[in-house]
Amino acid sequence: MNDGVADPAGRFWAGGMAYDGTHGAGSLYRTDHDGTVVRVLDGLTIVNGPAFSADGTIMYLADTAASTILRCRVDPGSGDLSGDPETFARPGEGEGGPDGMTVDVEGCLWVAMWGAGTIHRHHPDGRLLGITTVPAPHPTSVCLHPTENRLLVTTARYGVKDPTRTSGAVLDIPVPARGTAACSWRAQSAIAYRSHPGHRQEPDR
Q: 64: helix, coil or strand?
């Protein structure tokens, strides 16, 4: 597994990838309230995010290897996707690969750009609104404080060539935006595994 987050309805979503980064071997999974695990999307490579709109109807998802941010319509009642994912944004050459992300109170998407040392902020229609530079080349994820104008950024050190002093740190950066309160997974009962669509099997204990 690589990256995960709970949606506003209390389901947990996480992306998986092959350890060697094999193209197309990554998937997106959803853990429902009863512990059932659903494989939602296949054919991805390095899955990062996801991040959700405040009402839970929009999910953003990054495939870092493809340098693509996807937007998915979600049924907040069931957690099922409505239609196929759409390309939301595709960073240009030299702009890094989209990694961890979060949505602010205005509905804008903040994305850590792996390899570029920047954070991108996108309007809900996909337009790039601004770029924040951070003092580390490999930011991995972002979080906005819900009551203060602060952006928290995690950065990588392991496996990074020529790391800086702030590689492998958590950075606290002032920004003109705030986040929403973090959501938690809300569990109910037993655990099962369901490969989307329709297949169900019990996991090994």
A: helix
Per DSSP, 93 falls in state: T
Residue range 47-76: average pLDDT?
Answer: 96
Give catalytic status of residue 99 as yes or no: yes
Looking at residue 150, which CATH number applies to its domain?
A: 2.120.10.30
205: in domain: no
Please enumerate, by residue number, every residue annotated as part of a binding site for a divalent metal cation. Answer: 48, 99
The total number of structural domains that make up the chain: 1
Sign of CA dihedral 181, 7, 86, 65: positive
| In-domain check, residue 65 | yes
Q: What is the pLDDT of residues 92-127, one digit of tens each?
A: 989 999 999 999 999 999 999 999 999 999 999 999
Q: Supply the range of the domain harboring residue 37.
A: 3-200
Q: Which of 3, 63, 99, 104 is catalytic?
A: 99
Residue list, annotated binding site for substrate: 2, 20
Which pTM does this prediction carry?
A: 0.89
Show binding-site residues: 2, 20, 48, 99
Q: What is the mean pLDDT of the chain?
A: 91
Give the CA angle between residues 74, 40, 178 to the nearest 5°: 45
pLDDT of residue 100: 97
